[in-house]
């Protein structure tokens, strides 16, 4: 993976680590734009996500994992992951994801999105359980607002908004903001109507 990243013009690897604490130390020392994190890292990839979110909020973490099960995905996005890719992702997909995450976009692997969609279908869920805050974020996102504007509108931090967007992508079973906006427009969440979703408290 190091060779892959360094072969791309404009990218460089500033550090590596073999365990969670080492990963946090490298992030704090070099403050990279993007950190690639493996969930199987000794000490737990989730620990790296939490440590980065708390101590280095400008570094965005992209999970690269062999796990595609729902609990792993939700645990990662709730801990602050800016994206979730599978280790089987093509070279071009990984590079595009790194670039997108560095620019503030949230990315989900297509296979992860498909698994999420199947989860809803297999459980015969006809409504997506959104919290009131997630619904507010979705409405603004579907209206074309970037994360900074959503944060300003709702009085939240940009990293907090990024977490909400990641959760929305996972819950809706989509991989991009555009698909989430399309989902909202299809169900008339934007422009009136409330088909296809329900809200809960958090």
General description of the model:
The chain has 202 residues and is of the alpha/beta class. It folds into 2 domains: 2-115, Response regulator (Rossmann fold), CATH 3.40.50; 126-199, Orthogonal Bundle (Arc Repressor Mutant, subunit A). It contains 10 helices and 6 strands, in the order H-H-E-H-E-H-E-H-E-H-E-H-H-H-H-E. The strands form 2 sheets. Strands 1-2-3-4 form a 4-stranded parallel β-sheet. The protein has a two-stranded parallel sheet with strand order 5-6. The radius of gyration is 17 Å and the shape is globular.
- What integer value in Å does the Rg equal? 17 Å
Number of strands: 6
Poorly predicted ranges: 192-202
Structural class, judged by helices and strands?
A: alpha/beta
Domain unit count: 2
Mean pLDDT: 84
User: Could you state the CATH homologous superfamily of the largest domain?
Assistant: Response regulator
What topology emerges from the helices and strands here?
Blueprint: H1 2-6, H2 20-30, E1 34-37, H3 45-55, E2 60-65, H4 70-78, E3 83-86, H5 91-102, E4 107-108, H6 110-122, E5 128-130, H7 132-142, H8 147-154, H9 158-172, H10 177-186, E6 197-199
Parallel strand pairs: 1-2, 2-3, 3-4, 5-6
Helix pairs in contact: 2-3, 4-9, 6-9, 7-9, 7-10, 8-9
Features:
single chain; 202 residues; alpha/beta; Rossmann fold; Arc Repressor Mutant, subunit A; four-stranded parallel beta sheet; 10 helices; 6 strands; globular; disordered C terminus
Give a brief outline of the structure:
By secondary structure, this protein is α/β, with parallel strands linked by helices. The chain contains 10 helices and 6 strands; from the N terminus they run ααβαβαβαβαβααααβ.
């Amino acid at each position: 993976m190091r060779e892959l990243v360094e072969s791309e013009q404009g990218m460089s690897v500033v550090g590596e680590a073999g365990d969670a604490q080492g990963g946090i130390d490298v992030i704090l020392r070099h403050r990279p734009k993007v950190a690639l994190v493996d969930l199987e890292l000794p000490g737990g990839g989730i620990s790296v996500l939490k440590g980065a979110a708390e101590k280095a909020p400008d570094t965005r973490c992209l999970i690269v994992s062999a796990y595609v099960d729902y609990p792993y995905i939700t645990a990662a996005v709730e801990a602050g992951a800016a994206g979730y890719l599978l280790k089987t992702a093509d070279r071009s997909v990984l590079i595009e994801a790194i670039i997108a995450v560095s620019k503030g976009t949230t990315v989900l692997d297509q296979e992860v999105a498909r698994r999420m969609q199947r989860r809803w279908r297999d459980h015969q869920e006809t409504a997506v359980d959104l919290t009131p805050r997630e619904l507010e974020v979705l409405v603004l996102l579907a209206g074309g607002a970037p994360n900074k504007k959503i944060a300003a509108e709702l009085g939240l931090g940009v990293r907090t908004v990024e977490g909400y967007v990641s959760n929305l992508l996972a819950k809706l079973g989509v991989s991009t903001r555009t698909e989430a906006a399309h989902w909202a427009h299809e169900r008339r969440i934007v422009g009136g109507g409330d088909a296809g979703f329900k809200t809960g408290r958090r």
